[in-house]
Amino acid sequence: MRFLVVDDDVETRLLMRKLLRPFGDVDVAADGDECIAVFSQALKDHDPYTLVTLDILMPNMDGQMALREIREIEKEQGIAPEKRVKVLMVTGLDDAKEVHDAFFLGEATGYIVKPLNREALLQEIVKLGVSL
Asked: Cα(first)–Cα(last) distance of the chain, in Å?
């Protein structure tokens, strides 16, 4: 199982890596641009991610734009909807517009509000169909 943690906050990346490492390999990215580069490379290497956790507020490309770009790449690659990567938005934004945009414009598969809680995070991941 492979995870990609995308967050501009170093402490959050370290915490997420620590929480997810027992369940698989964990790569990190600091912003949306880096996320897209790493995600695209994983597809080219035929070693796609199982789950991407994605913050919304980041420099360069924000999480909402990165999510839409991920979905566009998957469409271009001909990846069937049921085979697409699970994307869990992990953000401090508990805002109806952001939630709406994540699910309806970006096709996110989950949304969790910081601060991170280990149990809530793992429950949400399992709810997305990722077996831990």
From this structure: 9
